[in-house]
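Bench notes, afternoon.
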Amino acid sequence: MNIKARSSARLLAAALALGALGLAGCATQHTTAVSADTKAVQPAPAERAHYFLVFHENGRLYAFSDPALYLLFLEHDEVPLTRTRIGGGPEGQTVIFGLTKKEAEIPLNVPIAAEKFFDDKAGEVGAFYGEVIHNGRYYVFGEWQDLKDFLQHKEVAWTYTEIGAGPKGETVIYALNKKTKDAGRPVVLVESFKKLHQKK
């Protein structure tokens, strides 16, 4: 084979190699685009419903469905936007519902989420996290039915208790039920409480 023929053969081999690399690059880009499309179609996880109720030492009840608003209340003992029901509590207490800015735009005759929970008109509740502060203790619930049962008598049949585990050293009582009472420490509830209150 002469020099000219070898040179042409090398150029042809190089061109084929570059072409193969170019096709591989296109294939990789196409796969990435398909992956991105597939990820976009994945359903979002169900959002957890929240309900927080504070039996305050001032004799009032404070109700929240927004965790950030609830934490703001715990820090400052007040919230900027509210709806009030004078004498609307189970024992004639004034009930104050904390509102987000978005909820403040809702007409008064349309109940917000905290009012629906308070009035037991929330409908079917799936994933749930709730807290009740009563007599200086935190009661933590992973199911709406458990919190409703507590509100009937202010007691929980089955509990897991951590003394001094609250944000300011309060006792924290985790509500259990027939399904969860034999499972031991309610790890998910404990971690949810710690995450919300940023405790380690």
